[in-house]
Structures are given as C-alpha cells and as structure tokens.
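Deliverable D4.2, example record:
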Amino acid sequence: MDVADLKKMLQKIGFYKGVIDEELAQSISVFQENYGVTPIDGTAGPKTLSKLSEVIKQKNMDFSER
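Output generated by the structure prediction step:
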C-alpha cells in the first residue's frame, strides 16, 4: 500500500484532510488513539493498516473507488 492509498482510506473515514506530511502522521496518531491501536506513533504499521482496513469494511466503504 502506498501513501496515497493510506491518505484516501483515512480521508474516507474523516481522519485526514490535508497534504502528505506531518499532518498525515498526526492523522494516523489520532486514528490509532481512537481505535486503540498501539503504539500510538503516527506510522502506518501492520496493526494500523489492519485496523484501518477493518474500519473501512465495517463502514461499508468501497476503498477501490477512485
């Protein structure tokens, strides 16, 4: 998964509204905190990506829409 995909996923569920920089890291940290993903470090590791995919599925969002 690339950064653009991650950005789109976070945008779809309201956690990212900006450019790819420190704001993205902060958006990831907020997501991690809200969904209990540890460590809360602003990086999109395996646990964060797994939880993000789970949330997208739970909200019945089609990530493949481009």
